[in-house]
Amino acid sequence: MAKIHKPRSGSLAFYPRKRAKKETPTFKNVSYKEAEEAKPLNFYGYKVGMTHVIASDMHKKSPTYGQKVAVPVTIIETPPLVVVGIRAYGKTSEGLRVLTDVLSENLPKELARRIKTLSKRSARGKGKKESKESEEKEEKGAKGNGAEKIKELIEKGKVYEIRLLASMQPKLTTTGKKRPELVEIHLSGSIEKQFEYAKEKLGKELSVKEAFEEKDFLDVKGVTKGKGFQGVIKRFGVKMHRPKAKERRVVGSIGPWHPATVMWTVPRPGQTGYHTRTEYNKKLLKISDDTSINPKGGWKNYGLIKNEYIIVEGSVPGPSKRCVAFRKSARPAPLEHHKVEEVEIVATKQ
């Protein structure tokens, strides 16, 4: 018999349902820091959209074992990040705090749109005549100034973690965005190895292949599609009243006389969408730079893919062109039923 009683739906774990503070998602914590080598643990990209791929089902207990199956996937374009700085964190009783930053001598000129305090000279970039001088300044900037200060703090044992400050490059994509996002990249390994890796990468580009490999499981974080101010029917899925009722798209009762209050568990109208959400254990099926997957007219609401991209199994929060973050999975990997391999065909018709 069907269940008639349906007062509400929607998890109370996501509370309050308000607009996200910022559109660029960040990860406070990442896993696999006990690795021997220094390596990026998270990355950023722009959501292209969803399609499906034809892949092999390698789950032995599945009825389609060894056969080709259609798998829904999301494509995320991942242009290389430019490492513009090094940030050292110290641990206090109130959490992590920034000890010092080291910025590259030659910053991308587009970064001045994000950081207004940058001087025109530092945001100008390399010129033809100044290339050798700028490279020398880059080396001096990495060895002197704040880099030596970070090294002294490491020797004193005050540095708890080192992260990379990286700038995204939307100019390489067809999103039409001009102001780049400034993000933090976590690193694995010991503090000394993190510092050496950060010095080596300062002022250079960082690729998604340096952080992840195919068949990895990722946690994807993004800001969902905004839907504005909505009522309880759309926001919580409350069942509508019968046609003879005075009001149909409302809650039957918002609470008793005593206690004379409206509990927070009662569905109420308000902001719907544009929330920060994290989805766990998304399998990374493919990393490629083959632009032959582009449809003739480009991807709907996005355009053409011009850089490296990743193909992730399942859906990802947010609309097309939105910046999404992904990291190594923090939870244990799922069981055999996620064993989809050998991606052959990517559907490009929309």
SSE inventory with pairings:
Layout (H helix, E strand, L loop, with lengths): L41 E16 L10 E10 L3 E12 L2 E9 L27 H13 L2 H10 L5 E7 L14 E4 L5 H11 L3 E2 L10 E7 L4 E3 L1 H5 L33 E3 L3 E13 L20 E5 L9 E6 L11 E7 L4
Antiparallel strand pairs: 1-2, 1-13, 1-14, 2-12, 3-4, 3-5, 3-7, 5-6, 8-11, 8-13, 9-10, 11-12
Short description:
The chain has 350 residues and is mainly beta.
Polypeptide structure, described:
The protein is mainly beta and 350 residues long. It folds into 2 domains: 7-79 and 209-226 and 273-350, Elongation Factor Tu (Ef-tu), domain 3 (Beta Barrel), CATH 2.40.30.10; 81-206, Ribosomal Protein L3, Chain: B, domain 2. It is 11% helix and 30% strand. It has 4 helices and 14 strands. It has helices at residues 131-143, 146-155, 191-201, 232-236; strands at residues 42-57, 68-77, 81-92, 95-103, 161-167, 182-185, 205-206, 217-223, 228-230, 270-272, 276-288, 309-313, 323-328, 340-346. The strands form 3 sheets. Strands 1-2-12-11-8-13 form a 6-stranded antiparallel β-barrel. Helix 2 (146-155) runs antiparallel to helix 3 (191-201). The protein is globular and about 75 Å long. The two termini are 39 Å apart. 29% of the residues are buried.
CATH topology of the largest domain: Elongation Factor Tu (Ef-tu), domain 3
Gross morphology is globular
pLDDT < 50 runs, ≥5 residues = 138-143
What integer value in Å does the Rg equal? 24 Å
Question: End-to-end span in angstroms?
Answer: 39 Å
Tell me, rounded to a whole number, the average pLDDT.
Answer: 87
Indicate how many domains the architecture comprises: 2
Determine and state the CATH class of the largest domain: Mainly Beta
Oligomer: single chain
**CATH evolutionary superfamily of the largest domain:** Translation factors
Please, how many helices?
A: 4
Largest sheet: 6 strands, antiparallel, barrel
User: Can you list the strand order of the major beta sheet?
Assistant: 1-2-12-11-8-13
Structural class: mainly beta
- Total number of beta strands: 14
Helix content bin: 10-25%
Strand fraction:
25-35%
For the record, the CATH architecture of the largest domain stands as Beta Barrel
